[in-house]
Amino acid sequence: MPSPLLLVVEDDQNLANLLEYNLSRAGLYCVLSGTGENALLELPKKNFDLVLLDIMLPGIDGFEVCRQIRQHQLYMDIPIIMLTAKGEEIDRVLGFELGIDDYIVKPYSPRELILRIRAVLKRDRRMGGRAQDNLSLGTLEIDLVRHSVKLEGKELELTLMEFKLLVTLMKRKGEVLSREILLCDVWEVERNINTRTIDTHVTRLREKLGDHGALIRTVRGIGYKLDSARPGCDAALSDNC
Questions:
Q1: Domain range holding 57?
Q2: Which of 34, 66, 70, 236 could form a disulfide with 214, with the two C-beta atoms 3.0–4.6 Å apart?
């Protein structure tokens, strides 16, 4: 089993370096991030097993970072431990309400930190960890870890947004998703952005999927849904199949 990979979000560089040293001694690899914004950009780059998150960060704080992770379809199951100097009850309560897995107050002993990280990782494995590492529909396969898509064994070249759009449709297969919901889930933007953006990306995604593109159905006046082929229908089934 590969060593766990942690995303450490800490703006104090000295403390971040000390964390990296103690984690590496315990066989835990980590990526350091000094701001909440940067941490959210790092998440799609690697398959993180856990996030160590400070609250007091420049820009968006740790609570907001946690909220965005928990609301994101791809990262909502990643365990989060808050590691902070804020030890008041209200901060702990807010952290757990947002969905953190543990809350550690500074100063802490490195040994306790490692033990609590391992306890959360072990609990996450018992509960099944992330929902899925792979998605499939017939000959269409998505590897969430490697961010790759294969159709009939051949890898497709998708943009990041096309990939995220396809993953969202696959994870919520059969559900009718409005353009506004897709903008929030895939693009993570407010609902007043031009929804024609969705239509353009769906058109391009359908083209790249070839016959399988017909599985992305347009629900008139609402948005889109991904259907699976029914018995006796081919991949490019029509609405009347």
A1: 5-126
A2: 236
